[in-house]
């Protein structure tokens, strides 16, 4: 039962009441509605109780007499942010509505925010239950909503009986209207289409699987991953809703987090997935709601309000459980954690080794929570992993995809930028950016790796000359496999980000620091972006496969070799020459609604300003609308085969569809001052965090060992 909006979950009852006159059904349904109101009142009492619980003093509250805290207090006490009052008169009123008005101001807000608010500065003596309204107000809300609903009915807003009718897949008139040119396209209108897609998906989840971790949009069922659920979808999607200003949905999600989310569950969870999605989602919700109160404004989030630190309290609780993963002999985290028992567990396969990317894609999250809480152990443990990995002295910065938590050495020789390798590279450059470019060690490692990628993994396809990043399954001395996971498509955007640091290319070029290498790296980013786009265009649905193979020369062309370049226009018939370069195996033809290509399109648009990246994103979005929508208001599903029309549906909605894919679409069509790229860093699950200075408490606690030109350690 939904306290916020009783009609959200009891819509069927409410509709039927107003359709049927003087019938037994009407009486039954009226009774159900009354029962619903009573339940709502009961529930609100329970929620009130739970709110009390959730604002008990959190575990491991920092000691206020601790010297770390004194240093940080001084730093934060001086910051403009901590001294910021409540919402000022110039700020918009609650629910001020459409996006432009709210978000048009967001860019300017960055200018005045010099630091991060400090969680541990907050008093914990919150008054009890302030986030729950008195019951009489709940009743009034309920009655008002009933009256409104009846009016809507009589005005014909509900044209179908949603309780019984099986509605076909949604058909959007705009999908088939004549194409607009890039110049005349209304990008804000396109962005609204993205919001519509998001709300369709979210509302389906809310209706059919609320509180479940997994959503099957065709069978309209939910499933839990842990006994009481982890909020997998709710927490992952939360910051997208904040950005989209979907206030009532944010309120519902927040209420669930407050009342129902608990980590006291005897259950193993993935260290990596839980960190990037749940910890990342909570931290980013904390960031957006505390720094941008105009977005989806809720009184509970306001500075000084009882619920202000809800997301951060949950994040701290979760981080305390997850951090046990790092308690290995080497400091490299184990693959799983039993969150209820605070106990780490090695992987079940690969001799217990962890995935390299998984152990090195926790750092942004743990460093940010260290900064917010002043708890240095989060920082130290996350940072230690980087030292252990680097002390292996791999050739040319390219790491095998498994690593032993026991002794910190790599297992096997498989090198790739797809699964298990990808975000190791992503977090090198992002760690450098997160701390305002103060930790040059990560830039050095990123540059070494990018040189290694060019030298060992980049080649060109035949006959058209697409640039690809292949794999070395048997190490750098083995052959190059011309296989690219969709996951690799984070690279074009990340390369561009590394070149400009988040500035536009035009701005970066004006700086005296601009080099020929920067030029070459931007060119590589552009070429890879086109390749990723080609993997979409090649498919019958216009949606890329999970894995794509390419036709390459034997031996493969070196990155520096002269080569053809594909045409920019990838339209055309089935016989078009560029199609010969690509193969998709039947077993790889699924599309999991993954974000990496639109993520890169977003970075490429922001950095280069080339409108074609926005257009490609729009085309991709239309393909998702055309081919992944499901019947009866179920939202959207991933596909088991994206290379046939109609596609074979998979009956699963990935949480990153809401957290990442639609968020990047939304940002791609938004004005560029919404989350300026040179002020934030976005985690691998698309959760934005602020950049910050390390301050007096934090520093880089390790140095690279001396190494030769290939990156091997000099003994
Ligand atoms: C997401 O969970 C993250 O982007 C991760 O880094 C890779 N895989 C998925 C999306 O494809």
Task: Describe this structure in a few short sentences.
By secondary structure, this protein is mainly alpha-helical. It has 23 helices and 17 strands. It folds into two domains: 14-166, no CATH class; 187-690, Glycosyltransferase.
Q: Layout of helices and strands, plus pairs?
A:
Elements: H1 6-9, H2 11-19, H3 24-54, H4 67-77, H5 99-103, H6 106-111, H7 135-154, H8 187-209, E1 214-216, E2 221-223, H9 232-243, H10 247-260, E3 268-270, H11 271-291, H12 310-322, E4 336-338, E5 343-345, E6 354-355, H13 356-359, H14 363-373, H15 376-390, E7 402-403, E8 410-411, H16 422-434, H17 440-456, E9 458-460, E10 467-469, E11 483-485, H18 491-500, H19 505-509, H20 516-537, E12 547-550, E13 582-583, H21 596-608, H22 611-628, E14 639-641, E15 648-649, H23 655-668, E16 680-682, E17 688-690
Antiparallel strand pairs: 1-2, 3-4, 4-5, 6-7, 7-8, 9-10, 11-12, 12-13, 14-15, 16-17
1-deoxymannojirimycin (DMJ) binds next to helix 23.
